[in-house]
Amino acid sequence: MDPIISFPIRVDDFISTLTQAISAEVIQQLKNRNIPTSPTNNQEELLTREATAEYFHISLPTLNNYTKSGLLKGYRLGNRVFYKRSELEAAPSEIRTTRNSITQNQRRA
Question: What is the pLDDT of residue 68?
Fold first, then answer.
């Protein structure tokens, strides 16, 4: 049986050290498998549906409607949908108010 060595350490310090060690190991494993750990200049950062909805402060059904209507362009990878961050930042945003919609409806009539 291996001897057990104990020494006093604060819980916060232990968690910090453990987190750094795990992060370093995960990054090393990703590099060993040639998986990029962060987007490079020629790669787009893809956001999940949840992250995109949070980015715009909208619900997932609203995001789905925006995608179906063509306001946002989604990309399917397998059975998941992602959105390009650069396209989200460039997406037009129109502020619709009751006054604007009444005026537009009156103009159409």
Answer: 92
